[in-house]
Write a structure and sequence with these properties.
The protein has about 160 residues and is mainly beta. The chain has a single domain, classed as Porin. The chain is built from 1 helix and 8 strands. It has one helix spanning about 1-15, and strands at about 25-35, 40-50, 55-60, 70-85, 90-105, 110-125, 130-140, 145-159. The longest helix is centred in the first third of the chain and has 15 residues, at about 1-15.
Length: about 160
Amino acid sequence: MRRALTVFAIAALSIGLLPTPAFADFTYFFGYSPKPTGRPARGFALGVNMIVVGFEFEYASTDKVESRSAPGLKTFMLNGLLMTPTSDTQLYVTAGAGFYREYALTATETTFGTNVGGGLKMRLVGPLRLRVDYRVFALRGQPVLKTAQRFYAGANVAF
């Protein structure tokens, strides 16, 4: 009897430890940063998704507008995502941290930042999805803008 319980416990533990399917995705996006004046943004994200939890690396660049004293911003962020477990349209919330570089007319600031946001990934055809996202960045150090926002839409490919 003891041997049967041991075999059952090992089998149950083995089934519970089986990895869940993980899927990767790549997003290339174009966006908009509204403050202090509207500026274009673009970038990419590479992620791994496991049913409801995901992780991604994201790079984005927002152009500067010297005539309006709007600094440029480059972000390099590692993010965690919590997603709905649906297949055609996934809603998600995200939070992350990483480094940023803000460049203005006379100064450049490179240090640590965090971000929070959310969005959706909507299946279009096959592995191609539309991704729409909103982020708020909290920039540490001495940036011109302590808080930056970004809206974007992009093509997302799951593989």
